[in-house]
Amino acid sequence: MLRLTRVWLLWRRPPAAGVPAKNLGLRKVASGVSPPGSASPRAVNIFDRDLKRKQKNWAARQPEPRKFDYLKEEVGSRIADRVYDIARDFPLALDLGCGRGYIAQHLNKETVGKFFQADIAENALKNTLETEIPTVSVLADEEFLPFRENTFDLVVSSLSLHWVNDLPRALEQIHYVLKPDGVFLGAMFGGDTLYELRCSLQLAETEREGGFSPHVSPFTAVNDLGHLLGRAGFNTLTVDTDEIQVNYPGMFELMEDLQGMGESNCAWNRKALLHRNTMLAAAAVYGEMYRNEDGSVPATYQIYYMIGWKYHDSQARPAERGSATVSFGELGKINSLMSQEKKSQ
């Protein structure tokens, strides 16, 4: 588990090394955002996508957006590491839900030839971080991608898909725009994310108001991801989890950072207003139940990482059922045969 510490009003992430302007690609802006309220007929309408767009745009307009980028930059760097683990280059790649470009800044032009960066928030696209890779900014919804079939060699997505109403459709769209033998690498928040905040708010609201409403958005379960990827058409799947724990001075600093990240709750069934006494009680519960020795409080972010490939004839395939020449029973005798051989020597 990685532990980060957020020092209130004093913490600043050091600026990334500058990239000469001559190395930057031309940025063009296209639009593929779905009209407000549109969704596929089968979608479960959990999130207010128009509100999420406004939240992300508000966060991108803040005077110091980098003050809140620490978590997204960390996960973006881990996605980039997984790209480097694949021993090939990608002439054309797509970053879906790119924000301010937290993945592209960790990649180089030898690995990715050209990057399309897509997001629903136009202000994030206008303030993307510098990278040496030529990029094109595209205003687009994750569920309604404005790209042709078999376009990209690589699709990446970092901390965006957990706000999608129709995740199966989004994964199908990603599979559709990938070329055969293309790969998708994604990261999204998991079900244990911010459990400390969730528990504190529920306990305080139940005690003060006689019941509670959801204040942290629902997340996908890890056992469902493999099934959803397979149903979308991906093969050679890998799904793993990780946790990042960040320490804050208190609950209110955590909530301010979530707002600055554009990660405030946008579920339709959220409660619009919490009473001041309930919030103070929740902060007290948070400190009482989870306080660290130094007086800070932890917040846990569970991250699901997923990798899936689009089928191609050149990919390795499992052998046909019944084609094995050695049984599992015979494999169990290997140790005894090896020990006998050692004794004879």
Report on this structure.
Belongs to the methyltransferase superfamily. A nine-stranded mixed sheet has the order 1-8-9-7-6-3-4-5-2, sandwiched between helices. It is an alpha/beta fold and about 350 residues long. The chain has helices at about 50-60, 70-85, 120-125, 165-175, 195-210, 220-230, 250-260, 275-290, 330, 335-345; strands at about 1-5, 30, 90-95, 110-120, 135-140, 150-160, 180-190, 235-250, 295-310. The protein is globular and about 75 Å long. α5 packs across α8 (about 275-290).
How is the quaternary structure best described? single chain
Roughly what is the average pLDDT, rounded to an integer? 81
Strand order of the largest sheet: 1-8-9-7-6-3-4-5-2
C-alpha geometry: globular
Going by helix content, strand content and strand pairing, the class is alpha/beta
Number of helices: 10
Low-confidence stretches: 4-41
Secondary-structure element order, as H and E?
EEHHEEHEEHEHHEHHEHH
Largest pleated sheet: 9 strands, mixed
* Number of extended strands: 9
Q: Taking Cα atoms only, what radius of gyration do you get, to the nearest Å? A: 23 Å
SSE map:
Blueprint: E1 2-5, E2 29-32, H1 49-60, H2 70-84, E3 90-96, E4 112-119, H3 122-126, E5 135-140, E6 152-158, H4 167-177, E7 178-189, H5 195-209, H6 222-231, E8 235-248, H7 251-261, H8 276-290, E9 297-309, H9 328-331, H10 334-344
Helix pairs in contact: 5-8
